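Fig. S4 source data, part A: sequence.
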Amino acid sequence: MKISFQETNAANLLPNDKAARYLGVSANQLRLSRHTGELFKGVPAPAHKKLGRSVMYHKSALDDWLSSLSTLPDYHNTAEHQPDK
């Protein structure tokens, strides 16, 4: 059986709720990030596609977004983090 490009591409598209679970955030937080442009303070929201009324996320775009988080500093405890004043 031959799989078409569209079938393969569609399998890699995640709706908001599944994308949120994949990222470990709530569906509402991910939905809000599309309006604010930030998923966390100072962290841009992942790219999404709008297909009619549906919002979808490419799994590869989510993986790229997660990889980009490696540039953020690591903290060993909350005392190390100095919030913006």
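Fig. S4 source data, part B ends here. The CA atoms of residues 15 and 54 lie 8 Å apart.
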